[in-house]
Specification:
With 246 residues, this protein is of the alpha+beta class. It is 57% helix and 16% strand. The protein is built from seven helices and seven strands. The strands form two sheets. A five-stranded mixed β-sheet has the order 2-3-1-6-7, sandwiched between helices. Strand 4 and strand 5 form a beta hairpin. The longest helix is centred in the N-terminal third of the chain and has 56 residues.
Length: 246
């Protein structure tokens, strides 16, 4: 005798239930992973934005620090320290140049500046220096380095400039300053003149005489002294026979 029967499993053991649960589990895991990836991507974007903002801020701060280190606060020209650094670089460049490359250095001093301060006050003197700085900018090229050397003295580095070009530049600047009136108060203007000393160099001269920054400055200063001795308001080129470079 035989008996046939079928045992029906509960629904949670059926293949379709197991398959459905598996699909739901896989979908849940996939959704969770996608959600986490979105959170991580958002966090990454937020961090990248913070880093970008901080980087821009640091760049801005570094630019401002560099400006403060290299710029004269009153005239907004370069300061003496930056001028010396640039002059050293130009001398090194010139010493490596083949042929007869040139460089000119100018020192400018305001005539009778002490009288301006004594007569009209230091505020008036500061205004004169600021207007002089503007004149120097207008008469210079983009490749020139213009700086306040100290007090009422200014200096200019003129790369690739021969003696003739340096004299033309110096005379143009002297004429520009002497032809204009300087506003020292809202109602008062005064005439200002300057004296200029120029040292013009070549790569051959620098290599032969082992010239350094101190020597170049002394030569320009000696020419400036002669300009003042000869009556001021003029441009003098350094001359080994006429000037004594200390």
């Amino acid at each position: 005798a035989s008996i046939s029967f079928t045992v029906t499993p509960p629904f949670w053991l059926t293949w379709w239930f197991i398959l459905s649960c598996s699909l739901l589990l896989i979908g849940g895991i996939a959704k969770f992973v996608y959600y986490r990836l979105r959170i991580l991507a958002g966090e990454r974007d937020r961090l990248e934005l913070i880093v970008s903002d901080r980087t821009s801020e640091l760049i801005s701060i570094n630019k401002e620090l560099n400006r403060l280190v290299t710029t004269d606060e009153l005239t907004k020209l370069f300061n003496r320290r930056h001028l010396i650094e640039c002059l050293e670089k130009e001398i090194k460049r010139l010493s490596r140049c083949p042929g007869n490359s040139t460089l000119a250095f100018i020192i400018l001093d305001v005539d009778y500046f002490k009288k301006i301060n004594d007569s009209y006050g230091h505020t008036a003197g500061d205004r004169v220096l600021q207007q002089l700085a503007n004149n120097i900018r207008q008469c210079s090229r983009e490749t020139d380095v213009c700086a306040r050397y100290g007090g009422e003295e200014f200096a200019m580095i003129l790369p690739f400039t021969e003696v003739k070009g340096a004299l033309v530049c110096g005379e143009k600047l002297r004429q520009e300053i002497s032809d204009n009136e300087f506003l020292i108060t809202h109602q008062r203007k005064i005439q200002v003149t300057v004296s200029l000393g120029i040292s013009a160099l070549t790569s051959e001269y620098i290599n032969r005489e082992c010239i350094n920054t101190d020597q170049i400055i002394r030569e320009a200063d000696a020419a400036l002294y002669r300009a003042k001795e000869q009556g001021r308001n003029q441009v003098c080129l350094y001359n080994t026979k006429l000037d004594i470079s200390l």
